[in-house]
Amino acid sequence: MSITTFLQHCLTGISLGGAYGLIAIGYTLVYGILRLINFAHGDIFMMAGYFMIFALASFPWPIAIVITLVITTVMGVVIERLAYKPLRSSPRMSIMISAIGVSYLLQNLATYLFTAIPRGYPEIPLLKRIFRIGELSASLVTLMTPVLTIILVALLILLVNKTKTGMAMRAASKDFETAKLMGININRVITVTFAIGSLLAGIGSILYFTDRMSVTPFSGTLPGLKCFVAAVFGGIGNIPGAVIGGFFIGIVETLLVALGYSTFSDAFTFLLLIVMLLVKPTGLFGEKTVEKV
Amino acid sequence: MHTRRNTILTIISAALLVGLLYWLHFNRTGNGMLISILQKSAILALVAVSMNLLNGFTGLFSLGQAGFMSIGAYVTAILLIPVSSLEGVYYMSGVHPSIRVFKVFLGSLPPWFQSLYPFFALILGASIAAIIAAIVGVAVLRLKSDYLAIATLGLSEIIRAIFSSPQLDGVTNGSYGLNKIPGFPKMFGGLVPSLVTPFVISAICIMLIVMLIRSSYGRAFLAIREDEIAAEAMGISLFKHKSVSFIISSFFSALAGGLLAMYMRSIEAKTFSIALTYDILLIVVIGGIGSVTGSVLASFLVTASKEWWLRFFDQPLDLFGWQVPLFKTGFRMVIFSILLMVVVLIYRRGLMGTNEFSWDRILGRFKRRKNAKGGA
């Protein structure tokens, strides 16, 4: 592999990793507060893809993007209200089964509404414009994804560290019960968490699918699980960690595909998960907890 | 003398079931649908019970069932595909020479061995899965609750990736999958016709699992499920018992996977994706987490409604000239997922909760109803 192709693949990988990072944040935030692997997160991401297809069919792209993001955010919050809130005091296994149930429901709903045939993802001409840097060429979306990811993460970190809501979120993730006793409206915090997570998944979905051309009802499952692995890799509950995990998985996956091991690119992610959980269960930047192992 | 009455009722219903199966054997034509649904239910019942052993009785939330099923299915399929069909199956990249040599050698063995061979294949597949479970369990079983779930789910995806990889083309036929797998064999020299075989195997396996649950191991599993630290303090080796549960559950999942390969006659790696595990989890949840009979009942109910009773949801419905708008392909699965969510959120115990099926309860319900009528 020449250095140019290597760099070209790295660029694709970084772009993919940026989208993964944005989705991984949703996992990390929710897990930090509810201790729940939100299995439905990947399917929210998939639904956002479909929303974009339909929004773009009847609106110009800036309005379509806004509509998609709003619907996705609302959907995330509604799912939390209907499927997770009633089970807040039940054992963790029931909430996880509920999350799997929601994921199952969203996939079947998407199959029912949009059929299982892949749907072409509309192109936004501006995002698809090709840029050339030396011998490398990349579309605007490829270049934009990592930059946008880093800006959004910086904003999110500001929100978490400087605002009152952010402080409530941190309190809830440190100690759920005590936060409640201190007068924090825990339901509001959880709603905000799901809203942020789904919004970022929506943005990630636009960036991801613009490069991939088509959406199916099942195209959310694997990216979703990979992003959870990214969140674990970076240390669950840690926002920059999730993004770095996302970039790492994105780059390695792209390089594996480029080397001809495409069937193993998914398996690699899970191998990484198992090794990580056994060797350093707190992840790269996670705080020390004793609960996982 | 309730116990005697219960034994008689059990024997009568078992005899009725066996009678139904033999009747189906002699009246295959026209009953193809019923036969295939019952067979599939029996196979899924075995997987559901083995998943329940792990998730319901030992409290280890594992999502790796599909992976272990694929091991059983692939091993059984590779061992059973006849020599004459090898060319047709491995049409893309040719078969690995050692498999051909092995199969030719098998052909020279005496006929009594030939008739037992499919069962050896099933058990070999299950044993390989059990060995893999034993090795992987050392690492994975240290994890708790949701981490165990995602790690086993990952494991199942890794197994699937290995089976569909181009490096194994000569053995697993990569992403093209295997076909021309022989159907169910006869048992006991034709005493049990091939149609009934999956029911017999599944029943034997489920009985073995029930025996395990009732043994001292089973009590230890329950203790671990209720409170790991207390169980350990009582002298129960956590690692040993978790491993036993994981290995046995994987063994029977793989055996059911082998049966599934015989049932479907053709398999590919895609068959054993995460969706399959979710389907089985759905059966376990609807039947009641921690109830063997619940899993068996739910497996028959869910499969029958999915493949048969609720089919009409997928067809366009014409009510007196008015086209009902909701009915089209996929509606059935939406109904199913909503049903699952209702069970998860409202009827959290499922069909049976942690109870087992008992005649006393059923008859008791009838009696109560009668009394209520009499009183009114």
Outline of the structure:
Chain A is mostly helical and 293 residues long. Chain A contains twelve helices and four strands, in the order ααααβαββααααβααα. In chain A, strand 2 (130-133) and strand 3 form a beta hairpin.
Produce the secondary structure layout.
The complex is a heterodimer of chains A (293) and B (376).
Chain A: H1 3-34, H2 41-58, H3 61-84, H4 92-114, E1 119-120, H5 125-128, E2 130-133, E3 136-139, H6 140-162, H7 164-174, H8 176-181, H9 186-212, E4 214-215, H10 221-234, H11 239-258, H12 262-279
Antiparallel strand pairs in A: 1-4, 2-3
Helix pairs in contact in A: 1-6, 1-9, 1-10, 1-11, 2-3, 2-4, 2-9, 2-10, 3-9, 6-7, 6-9, 7-9, 10-11, 10-12, 11-12
Chain B: H1 2-26, H2 32-57, H3 65-80, H4 86-89, H5 97-107, H6 111-140, H7 145-163, H8 169-172, H9 197-214, H10 216-226, H11 228-233, H12 238-264, H13 274-287, H14 292-309, E1 317-319, E2 322-324, H15 331-345, H16 359-375
Helix pairs in contact in B: 2-9, 2-12, 2-13, 2-14, 3-6, 3-7, 3-12, 6-12, 9-10, 9-12, 10-12, 13-14
Protein structure class of chain A:
mainly alpha
Report the major sheet of chain B: 2 strands, antiparallel
* Assembly of the depicted chains: heterodimer
Amount of beta strand of chain A: under 5%
Structural class of chain B: mainly alpha
Pick out its properties.
heterodimer, A: 293 residues, mainly alpha, two-stranded antiparallel sheet, two-stranded antiparallel ribbon, B: 376 residues, 16 helices, 2 strands, 69% helix
